[in-house]
Design brief:
The chain has one domain: Beta Barrel (YmcC-like fold). The chain has one helix and 13 strands; from the N terminus they run H-E-E-E-E-E-E-E-E-E-E-E-E-E. The N and C termini lie far apart (46 Å). Strands 1, 2, 3, 4, 5, 6, 7, 8, 9, 10, 11, 12 and 13 form a 13-stranded antiparallel beta sheet that branches. 4% of the residues lie in helices and 62% in strands. The protein is mostly beta strands and 239 residues long.
Length: 239
């Protein structure tokens, strides 16, 4: 149960990658979008910190390839970092932005809807999640709200204008384990900042998930995850 909750609720809010599937035989040339850039060769350099401690650096480079996954065309980005080489998959349909990603390495990927650049402030959308593992079933919703729009933000000394801030929350989380319905306690503050052409420029992730004591099943309770980290765009080759 501990592994299930950590995998589903914790890692799903941090960018992770999954392997390419059903490659398109003739990739369609990538098109730059307002809040992301698909131009081949463009590279982003990120750093993640926790309590002023550098947790590592990651790079993301736009490839010249696309992949057809579940009848949707995703542009492929190649990544490097402390966990090694990886690939990320992004799609833009109209004004909606998606990432094909796994909530954890143990779970199947999903089409994560992380941004709509046309919505006004306070607009929101929710995406249901339901997964089963090791006899436990987790259900819940990933809710996103346009908290701010058109703001200015300086990240690592670089000023960005027309930034959109999306606040993400985990709602209605419930675990069915051996007939027991368990509602975890969640304290969270998850903010994602997106700038024109650059995409993600900053992420604040404060998340604590715990379970109160449950007789027989979990008599002492359990703190599942307690994280407080910031991911920042250090620089990029975006023009």
């Amino acid at each position: 149960m501990k592994k299930l909750l950590f995998a589903c609720l914790g890692c799903g809010l941090i960018a992770v990658s999954c392997k390419k599937s059903d490659p398109a035989p003739n990739p369609v040339p990538a098109t730059p979008s307002k809040f992301f850039t698909f131009t081949p060769g463009v590279t982003w350099y990120y750093q993640t910190d926790s309590a002023s401690v550098n947790l590592g650096k990651d790079t993301l480079t736009s490839s010249n390839s696309d992949s057809l996954i579940n009848s949707k065309l995703y542009h492929i980005f190649n990544g490097t970092g402390t966990s090694g080489a990886s690939q990320s998959f992004y799609n833009i349909t109209g004004r909606d932005y998606y990432q094909y990603t796994s909530l954890s390495a143990q779970l199947p990927p999903l089409d994560l809807h992380y941004l709509n650049d046309s919505l006004p402030v306070l607009s929101n959308w929710s995406q249901p999640v339901s997964v089963s593992q090791s006899g436990a079933t987790l259900t819940g919703d990933i809710k996103n709200i346009i908290a701010q729009k058109g703001i200015s933000l300086t990240v690592n000394g670089t000023p960005y204008d027309s930034v959109i801030m999306v606040r993400t929350t985990i709602e209605n989380a419930n675990i069915d384990y051996s007939g027991q319905n368990i509602t975890p306690s969640i304290t969270q503050d998850i903010q994602n900042f997106y700038a024109p052409r650059h995409g993600l420029i900053k992420r604040l992730l404060k998340l604590n998930i715990s379970i109160a004591p449950i007789p027989i099943f979990l008599p002492n309770g359990q703190e599942i995850i307690n994280t407080n980290r910031t991911t920042s765009l250090m620089n990029s080759t975006v023009q």
